[in-house]
Amino acid sequence: MTPDDIKRVIIDALTRIAPEIDPASIEPGASFRDQLDLDSMDFLNFVLALHDRLGVDIPEVDYPRLYALDGAVAYLASKTGAN
Amino acid sequence: MPSLGADMEAGTLVEWLKHPGDGVTRGDIIAVVDTAKGAIEIEVFEDGTIESVHVKPGEKVPVGTVLALIRGTGPERPGHPPGHPSAAAALRTPPAAPMPNAPAVAPAAPAAPSPAQAAAREQPGRVRVSPLARKLAADLGVDLTHMTGTGAQAAITREDVERAAAALKTPAPQPPAPPPDRSTAMRATIAAAMARSKREIPHYYLSTTIDISVALAWLRKENEKRPITQRLLPAALLIKTVALALRDVPELNGYWIDGGFRKGAGIHIGSAISLRGGGLVAPALHDADTLDLTTLMRQLQDLVARARTGSLRSSELADPTITVTNLGEQGVESTFGIIYPPQVALVGFGKIMERPWIGSGKIEARPLLTATLSADHRASDGHRGGVFLTAIDRLLQTPERL
């Protein structure tokens, strides 16, 4: 799985939670919570969706690394061994 | 048409999930009704057989209208010929939902059972639609009845509706009749309930700051041990805490009806859930004081998901005995809510923030939480409200016992 695949998985998970968002408008460096008005339940569902789709374990202490698109792609790429 | 809250006046029948001749058991979902709060699944409160239905899909009827007649399974009462629907047969509001301004039962006009109606009928598949998609479908004139969605649990999404609308290829002779706008309708119902609350309920307000460091440290450790699917959010702890504290101060748990306090039949915590696109609902977590944290968390997740996809159940909207709002998600320190009538109290939690705190004579940085109570002075006094907030603080200091 390439970083682009991971990015698609992330965007897909976000649009399931917030169907009204335009994926093209997501700023890669800015927090999802602020951009997309996610609450803690939304964020938990986002983490669960990533876990389901990618089969990676994401400890709670790593949650901050998933706060924005750039960081999330890098973190999940390292977890899945993508290159 | 059951009343799904003090602010509901009418509902539109979307579809029947059970049909004349079908057997039903208490708790079955027999119909979907569209309200300002989204599509609501209507549960039945009788065992029996559907005798006849009286409202067609698409019809909007006032609260109290008979939707269907159900023939009970109990012994025939003397004077009632066999096969005659009993007086208890009208589909009605659950008795646990005392809404003073809503007649619960319309007199049931007994209809003679017709064998033809009882013939087995093909049951259409359950259609899940998000409120956004449903509104869009109404705007675009898309029929959702036979559509299969591509969303989670085959829910129909906005994209599905847009695709279907494009496929219709009607060269835009859209009738300009403005369809009722969901968010406008929801604003109107919130306005009505909140105005009534401020008009009728003499609120008093209390606030306290709680050191939540012990609870958060416990939660962090607990979540380290738990698989990702079983992790807890602070909200689950807070709801459980409120439920347990209400055992100490039961006069905050229930309804003010006809000039008197009626204690809730259980501790059903209405959890305020904001909806994407505006508005909010506060459906009940039933008997929250009896649920362990894992179960409570799972039910909360399910409730939030269903509130946002528009598939709440009638009992969840009709019988919360108190409301909890957690505006801390939006970053505010404290929230003083308006009580949702006929409830008598609302608990608000603000954002958990690291702040200076004096513990054992030293100033330390601690995560602090502001808990507030808005309560109906007719049902309780500030002293009892204070006892309640103190109980919340005390319970949060021993999170392992929640």
Describe this structure in words.
The complex is a heterodimer of chains A (83) and B (402). Chain A is 57% helix and 0% strand. Chain A has one domain (3-18, 28-80): ACP-like (Non-ribosomal Peptide Synthetase Peptidyl Carrier Protein, Chain A). By secondary structure, chain A is mainly alpha-helical. Chain A starts with a helix and ends with a helix. Chain B is of the alpha+beta class. Chain B has 2 domains: 10-118, OB fold (Dihydrolipoamide Acetyltransferase, E2P) (Beta Barrel), CATH 2.40.50; 201-401, Chloramphenicol acetyltransferase-like domain (Chloramphenicol Acetyltransferase), CATH 3.30.559. Helix content of chain B is 27%, strand content 24%. Chain B has 9 helices and 19 strands. In chain B, strands 8, 11, 14, 16, 17, 18 and 19 form a 7-stranded mixed β-sheet that branches. A 5-stranded mixed β-sheet of chain B has the order 6-1-3-4-15. In chain B, a hairpin with a 2-residue loop joins β18 (353-359) and β19. Chain B is globular, with a radius of gyration of 23 Å. Chains A and B meet through α3 of A and α5 and α7 of B.
The coarse overall form of chain A would be globular
Q: Kindly identify the CATH topology of chain A.
A: Non-ribosomal Peptide Synthetase Peptidyl Carrier Protein, Chain A
* Secondary structural class of chain A: mainly alpha
Q: What is the H-and-E element order of chain A? A: HHHH
The share of residues in helices of chain A is 55-70%
Total of domains of chain B? 2
- Rg calc of chain A: 11 Å
